[in-house]
Specification:
- The chain is of the alpha+beta class.
- It has six helices and four strands, in the order ββααααββαα.
- The protein has a two-stranded antiparallel sheet with strand order 1-2. A two-stranded antiparallel ribbon has the order 3-4.
- The longest helix has 26 residues.
- It is globular, with a radius of gyration of 20 Å.
- The relative contact order is 0.09.
- The N terminus is likely disordered.
Length: 178
C-alpha cells in the first residue's frame, strides 16, 4: 500500500509518494497550533483523500469508470431514484460535470432516465439492473480496500476521526449559511 509522506523544505512544503512508512517526524503533532497546524491538517487530509480516490480508481478502472462515476452510482443506489440536481449537492463537482457523467453512465447502460408525468422538466435517474450488479460488485472490493486502510487503527480512534469529520462538515455548512 502506498503512503503519503509530508516533507518540509525551507522553500515550501512538498508532498511525495513513498512506499516507506512515515517517520515519527512526519506524524501529526497534537501540540501544534495556529497556522502551522492548519497547513498540516490540509496536507494530511489531502493525502487521505488521494489515498481513498486512488484506491477507488484501482477498483473501478477495469470497468472504465472513474472514482467520481462510482460515487455517483453509489449515491443513486443509496437514494434510489433522484435528480442530477440532488446528486450535484452530494458529489464534489459542479452540476455541468454531473450532467456529463450522467450522460456517459446512461450510454453505458448503468443509469436510466425517466421524466415525471406531473412535471416533464424533471428527469429522475435510477440504476439499471446492470448498474445495480456492478455497484454491488464494486462496493465489495472498495470496502475490502477500506478495511485494509484502517488496519491497525483502533476503533476508538476511528470514532474520534468520524466525530471530527462530522464537526468540520457542520462548521462548513454553517459558514455557507447567510
Amino acid at each position: 500500500m502506498l503512503l503519503f509522506t509530508i516533507t518540509k523544505t525551507p522553500s515550501a512544503q512538498q508532498r511525495k509518494m513513498t512506499q516507506q512508512p512515515p517517520q515519527p517526524k512526519d506524524n501529526p503533532n497534537p501540540d501544534n497550533s495556529g497556522e502551522s497546524a492548519l497547513a498540516d491538517m490540509e496536507l494530511y487530509v489531502s493525502g487521505l483523500v488521494n489515498a481513498l480516490d486512488r484506491g477507488i480508481s484501482e477498483q473501478t478502472s477495469p470497468h472504465n469508470l472513474s472514482s467520481l462515476d462510482y460515487r455517483l452510482l453509489r449515491a443513486c443506489l443509496q437514494r434510489g431514484e433522484c435528480t442530477a440536481t440532488q446528486l450535484a449537492v452530494v458529489l464534489p463537482t459542479d452540476p455541468s460535470r454531473i450532467s456529463r457523467l450522467v450522460n456517459t453512465l446512461v450510454n453505458m447502460g448503468l443509469l436510466s432516465r425517466r421524466r415525471l408525468t406531473t412535471d416533464r422538466r424533471v428527469v429522475m435517474l435510477s440504476l439499471t439492473d446492470e448498474g445495480n450488479e456492478l455497484i454491488s460488485e464494486l462496493d465489495k472490493s472498495v470496502q475490502l480496500y477500506y478495511r485494509k486502510l484502517i488496519q491497525g487503527v483502533r476503533p476508538a480512534d476511528l470514532r474520534v476521526f468520524a466525530e471530527t469529520c462530522v464537526k468540520l462538515a457542520q462548521n462548513y455548512e454553517s459558514l455557507r449559511q447567510p
